[in-house]
Amino acid sequence: MTISEATKLPARAVSVRPLIWIGAITTGTVVTNLFAPQILVGLIGRSLGMTALQAGLISTLTLLGYALGLLLLVPLVDLVENKRLILRTLACAIVAAVGTALAPTPLILLAATFILGASCAAIQMVVPLVASMVPPERRGQAIGDVMSGLMIGILLSRPMASLIADNWSWRGYYFTSAILMIVLAGALARYLPTLQPSAKVSYGALLASFPRLLREEPVLRVHAWTAALVMASFTAFWAAVALRLPDAPFNLDAKGIALFALIGVAGAAATPIAGRWGDMGFARPLLIVSHLLIIASLALCAWAGMLESRIAALVVLSLGTILLDLGITTDQTLGRRAVNLLRPEARGRINGLFVALFFIGGAIGAAAASAAWSYGSWNMVCAVAAGFGVLGFTDMATKTGSE
Predict the structure, then answer these.
(1) Which end of the chain is least crowded, N or C, by CB within 10 Å?
(2) Is the separation of the CB atoms in 197 and 9 below 8 Å?
(3) Angle subtended by helix axes 139-167 and 270-279, to nearest 10
(4) From residue 64, how far is each of 61, 149, 392 by CA, in Å?
(5) Angle, alpha carbons 346-351-356 (nearest 5°)
(6) What is the tally of helices (H) and strands (E) in the chain?
(7) What pTM was estimated for this model as a whole?
């Protein structure tokens, strides 16, 4: 059975600007649950008497749950009324966050974090719904605005979790997250439009269509590949920079490292601009520039570690970090814009595929950073991260189908 090209729009008029703001706040808030465990794992492990293996599974299961949610839950956007699906998925995230905060044993905590990760797939349900409410000529701007919230959430997740845990405890972070998501659920229930997809196929048929979408949509293939590469650069850098900052010439303590992480938020400013320029027809040259920025920024970051002056080293590293995040968020935003201009009836599956593939790139980047640090310390990490940028630049500069 084929899937209709049409998608039923909501019967009532939709005010797009509040919807974009709510979408940005929702994605930025929910995504913190995916990265906060990376900073909380030590506190959680000691609190529950977990072994090193069990503690290591906290972040792994959270991210694995998210990956499965992308592939198994997000495709339901093409089959189930979107507002109801988002609210139910967010409700699962709230319950899972409370369950994590109250977990008395390692086994219960690991199960709760896995469910929480899977439920965070609600993020990728919100993005295509917002995109569907905006005319194609303004879709890049709208996606850029929503993505700015997502990127800010990713960058703030670790320092925010550290701050809350220092003042209350790691359980306090998950309670705080649950409360914020409850407030968001109320706002979404009020402002989200209803969107009933017109697909008349089984859930199994939706999942089986993934390979066909990749085969038939070169735009999806190109952007998913380059997004995976830049995400690998992103995770490689941020996985290793906390190991480098305590040493000379930077000499930062834990609070200094948390403050440094806030610098990356400046990169989120690129998302609305990139979206607008993409709508104006500058997507391809802007994508090429974004990959060049990634390569140049990592050269700056490597150079910063060789300087003798602490102030100069911090200034150069900060500049490199901002340029790195500018390049990465530009690629991500323009990639989102491009794939959301594809088949309306498959928007959920396309978004799920896009994010799942660049999520795999992020996992590869983290693993590569670990190996590079062991082999050649900071300079090797920067070289490997820049190498991902070079691959992305080569691919984007030579292939068509990137609009």
Answers:
(1) N
(2) no
(3) 170
(4) 5, 22, 25
(5) 130
(6) 17, 0
(7) 0.75
